[in-house]
Amino acid sequence: MHSDKNKKVLVTHQLPGDRIHDLSAHCEMNVWMDPGLLSPESLREELAGCSGLVCLLTDRIDAELIAANPALEFVSSMSVGVDHIDVKALTARGIPVGHTPGVLVDTTADTAFALMLAAARRVVEADHFIRVGNWTQENAWAPDFFTGKDVSGATLGIVGLGEIGQAMARRAAGFGMEVLAWNRSPRQVTGITSVSLDELLQRSDFVSVHVALNDDTRGLLDARRIGLMKPGAVLVNTARGGIVDEAALAAALSSGQLSAAAIDVFETEPVPLDNPLLALPNVVVAPHIGSATTLTRAKMADIAAINAIAALSGEPMPHCVNP
Ligand code: DGY
């Protein structure tokens, strides 16, 4: 089916990849060109009268915004996670929501593994130690100097055995790790032992979070569950901040129950500087860069454009999240 080229589509950021140029042939495309994040006010203004929206995970597409846009026919997000979008409200209107699964699996697992190694071996702390001039004759190599925690041979607990969780397990196998996993609907994967979430937390030296954020997983790692974690364990979160109780995590790190954490995602992003996790030297932080390679971001943008083109052409989106 041909698309109606007069339909207006808002693209909330300049996007990489090639397919975004194809999208402009299918609609009247309005790309937000300003640097930085599009404010909620500008999003509301720019979306008025649009048939389509190509957005980022930083754009909040809530019920109010959806209700204010009766002409909206599709939403395509350049992300795999869709917790920034009220999918229920869009589904109720029959509006398809596209996302970008698959292409960021290995890149995100690489980030999780890199952060896990960095936290275990105190890489960021050590880097800072040199740069501030602390590496001196009096404070140098010694048997206990910057000792960390072995990753090789340790037990890794994977919370959420989707594609990224499984990619994390493949990396762990290369380090001779024992891999435990919990998934809401249990999955049998060779080389991975399925356990309950509580058992995983009790047995794992490293816990890596790979579930999507939704009503079932918000606050999943709460104070009780963090309290179950093995003494000296390390928590890695590259999924979404809302899955982990940040205050409880900070308390467990301060008390010494946990030895370290590596956090790429926060409940509020950009993370406010008074977040207690930022005050702790045993926390490695990153600004939501799980999928941040040039190639992966181009592939994500291409899928977002392909989903949008399909919707404009009256075809099903290849990657649609609505039930
Ligand atoms: C996603 O696509 O949801 C990721 O969080 C991006 O890194």
Automatic annotation (TrEMBL):
Ranges of residues in domain D-isomer specific 2-hydroxyacid dehydrogenase NAD-binding: 113-290
GO cellular component: cytosol
Gene Ontology MF annotations: glyoxylate reductase (NADPH) activity; hydroxypyruvate reductase [NAD(P)H] activity; NAD binding
Residue ranges of domain D-isomer specific 2-hydroxyacid dehydrogenase catalytic in the record: 9-322
Segments forming a coiled coil: none
Assigned keywords, A-Z: NAD, Oxidoreductase
Family, similarity comment: Belongs to the D-isomer specific 2-hydroxyacid dehydrogenase family.
UniProt protein name: D-glycerate dehydrogenase
The species this protein was found in: Pseudohalioglobus lutimaris
UniProt lineage: Bacteria, Pseudomonadati, Pseudomonadota, Gammaproteobacteria, Cellvibrionales
